[in-house]
Design brief:
Strand content: 5-15%
Structural class: alpha/beta
Bound molecules: flavin-adenine dinucleotide
Number of strands: 7
Distance between the termini: 63 Å
Shape: globular
CATH superfamily of the largest domain: Butyryl-CoA Dehydrogenase, subunit A, domain 3
CATH architecture of the largest domain: Up-down Bundle
Length: 417
Amino acid sequence: MTDAPIFDPQAWGLSDEQANLCTQARELAAEKFAPRATEYDRNASFPTENYQDLAASGLLGICIPKESGGHGADLKTYMLTAAEIGRYCGATALTFNMHVSSCLWTGDLLDQLDLDDHLRDQHHKMRALHYGRILNDGKIYAQPFSEGGAAAAGFAAFGTTALKVDGGWKITGKKIFASLSGHADYYGVLCSALQTADEKSSRRNTMYIAVHADAKGVSVVGEWDPMGMRGTVSRTLIFDDVFVPDEAQLMPQGVYPKAASRWPHMFMTLTPAYMGIAQAAYDFTVSYLRGEIPGMPPVKRRMYPTKQLAVAQMRLILEQTKALWFQAISEASPDPSQDVLMRAWAAQHTVMENANAISQLAIRTCGGQSMLKSLPLERLYRDSRCGSLMLPWTAELCMDMLGKAALYNKGETDDDA
Ligand SMILES: Cc1cc2nc3c(=O)[nH]c(=O)nc-3n(C[C@H](O)[C@H](O)[C@H](O)COP(=O)(O)OP(=O)(O)OC[C@H]3O[C@@H](n4cnc5c(N)ncnc54)[C@H](O)[C@@H]3O)c2cc1C
């Protein structure tokens, strides 16, 4: 029996395109990704076969604009589609996000910002190179931003630098938690562009550029044996004086900082993997208590009021999470009002924390046999814990921003107190 969509197209008013992409993703992930998820998780290995399927299905180009040969999905359409993948393999959905962001950010998000004709023209030429690689050759892009300092949170300039040289840039630095490391074909790196070696790095000079995985000076180091999201293979990347040609930029210089500040919802793209996990943990519990999990003896427990109450509580949390998330992704746009932005932070926090809340309730409710490694629930539980840690909008930082934004208007201080 196929699972019902997370967001029923009629009830939630999805377009035909959104409904079709969600169906395609759900069917592919349920049939192919779900049976492979245990192995990837156990071995902390990258879901290579899933990416071959994603390439064959055309979903690798989901956010490549239609005129360039992709599906042209906007942020909302992508998020709804990716959540369906997250139900069956969280690590695939999370790494898919890293790949897709390189297209969404350079595609629909930038198309909605005002750039002068020269910059727009330059950008369209640049992105055509990347889109061609993805659509024609099934190439995969990663998104290593984190460095272990304050840069990925948006509070400091990136320590990784790109020094201007003849015909391109020399990249030097280190990125931690680089999902898809050793498996992506290109690393879409955020770094500080320097015209001379003694120039100081600044956030204004942030550059977004794709480094070929096999370029001289690129190496992947360190082990990867984490608690959850093990299939993301998020090891450390070292760039040691790596030459990258000018045309490898994913956005013209100076554009990334503008995009990040005017399109803050771009950071919500880490949530669909966890929206899918929340749904999966709820679905599992219902099936388990109904005695419908294949290979398990029927557990006759659903008649107990405590079980019914627990499932009701899970359903409440799931409905609240879905409603807030759906509203936040529906109203995403450049230059959101403070009210809309605060809702985006609230939605991010809610999805990340509630995916874990539902997963832990699922384990308590289903009981000891449900947390055996032969079943997916304990993986959902471990994977779900990782959502709140993702910078720049970690659960803690969302609370920080919400509290400040509620109590202070823009530019307001306590100096006159
Ligand atoms: C499974 C997984 C996959 C990942 N994949 C990628 C990837 O592909 N690319 C990528 O770039 N990153 C990736 N990350 C990294 C992630 O986005 C964070 O950068 C990382 O989890 C930060 O860990 P840390 O210990 O360095 O956090 P720290 O920077 O030490 O922060 C710890 C906590 O302190 C809080 N904090 C941080 N800065 C501040 C501040 N200035 N003020 C107040 N509180 C603060 C935050 O809540 C944060 O959670 C991944 C992480 C995980 C877990």
